[in-house]
Amino acid sequence: MKISRLKAFFFFLIFSSLFFLSIHDVMGVFDVYKLLNDRVIVSGPINDASTFAFAWSMFVASVFMIICLITGKKLLWIPKIFLIILGLITVLAFLFGWRINTALKIKLHEKNYIECISKRELALKYSSRTYVLPPKRCDFTTHK
Predict the structure, then answer these.
(1) Which of 84, 85, 127, 130 is in Cβ range 3.0-4.6 Å of 119 for a Cys bridge?
(2) What is the pLDDT of residues 106-135, one digit of tens each?
(3) For the whole model, what pTM was predicted?
C-alpha cells in the first residue's frame, strides 16, 4: 500500500521536533545530575522517567516516518517482534529515567544538599524539589 510522502514528511517534522525537544529535557536531567550549581531543582521520578521514555518513543516514530518517506509504503510489513522489542526498550528507558532520579537524590544527600521546603512544588502534573548547598539560600530548610 502506498502512503502520501507529503503526509509522511509532515509527521516526520512533528515527531522529530518532539524528539529534539525531549532530548533537550533529557540533557537537562543529566546537567542537574552533574551538580554544577549550588541550587538544584529536581523533578519527580515519574517526570524524569517519562521524559526518557518519551524521547525514545519520538526517536522511534521519527525513524518510522523516515522509512515511510523513503519507501512510500505503510509500515504494515514490520514484524510484530520488532515492535515488541521497541516497546520493551521504551519500558527500559522509563526505568532508566526513574533510576537516574533516584541516584540523583542519593548523590544530593551525599554532597550535603539541603531541601528547601518553601520552594517545593508537589502537584499532580508537575512536581519538583529544590535543593541548595549552603543552608542560608532558602527560607525554611530541613535535612532529609
Answers:
(1) 130
(2) 998 888 888 777 666 666 556 777 778 776
(3) 0.79
